[in-house]
Model the fold of this input.
Amino acid sequence: MAAVEPITLRAGDTHSTIAVEAGGLETAGARIAARWPEAGRVFAISEERVWALFGARLAASCAAAGLRLSHRAAPEGEGSKSLAQAGELYAWLADERAERGEPIVALGGGVVGDLAGFVAATYLRGVPLAQIPTTLLAQVDSSVGGKTAVNLPAGKNLVGAFYQPALVLVDPALLGGLPPRQLASGWAEVIKYALIDGSVPGLGGDPLLPVLRDDGAALRALREPVTSTVIRRCIAIKAAVVARDERETGLRRILNLGHTIGHAVEAAAGYGRWTHGEAVALGLRGAGRLAVRRGLHDPSLQREVERLLDAYGLPGRIAGCTVEELLARIGGDKKVRGGRVNWVLPAGPGQVVVRDDVPEADVRAVLAELGAT
Done:
């Protein structure tokens, strides 16, 4: 494939360089050295399984660029996004005498990206951060935009910071070995972007929804160039949103489509029962049904969206949760303002609106329709 110019995301007084390049892991060391020429060391944070798959290649790339690499692999799973795990990483960095000019490199999926980003944002009041996402969900969403966080028992991502990675290296070739469930989890976020792209001012480009529908077989098989094109389009959508609203005071709220119910499902069922993308897919179904009830969304379009979610292997029924548990979690969501839940609801192809007037009775009914007991 021909080289494509990186995407630049400018937010406040920072900027991220986001490169989408099949085979890009092999050039990671050179890119890191070019971005931080004074740094002789990098500190990689990964998960055990991911490090076993890709760690040697990252280490070789860094060595070839004259960088010494130290790494720490956290346990796999959402449970690693904790203050306790962050504390272990702080202790490791302190033992290594890590300095402010030496970057942390997050190699992994969304859990690693969030955890490593949070540590980078807070250790020494901020050290440089590079993201090398290894899952589809992280490549199209969580590695971009500067949200970092850890979880509390009370809910997901309740402690965090906005901290932009200076470098994001997206290598679609890393996706070939993903388990089908993890790949499907990423497709949920891709579908989310297809449902919001028309609501991003000044974005331009072709809508994503027809590509997901018409080229679905090629995408699910990770064929090129369509895979890189779709990943890059999702990143461009998110970058355009974040550039206008880094701190989620307005436009950025549309990125939460599907997440109000999704986060509640993750927490109520116990982290690990559902992947993040599976929970978001359930949230997308729920948000669409709420929109239909409010007269915002055409029922035929909602049926098309649900068929698309089915085609990409995403769940259609909530299991392991009660309606009351989910309502309690929704009421404690970060997006609640003045006791009112801010719902992102679809309002047409690529269009969404934010509403805080959704009756609890409608939420109860939709959760029950989706299988909550």
Q: What stands out?
A: Residues 324 and 351 are 30 Å apart (CA to CA).
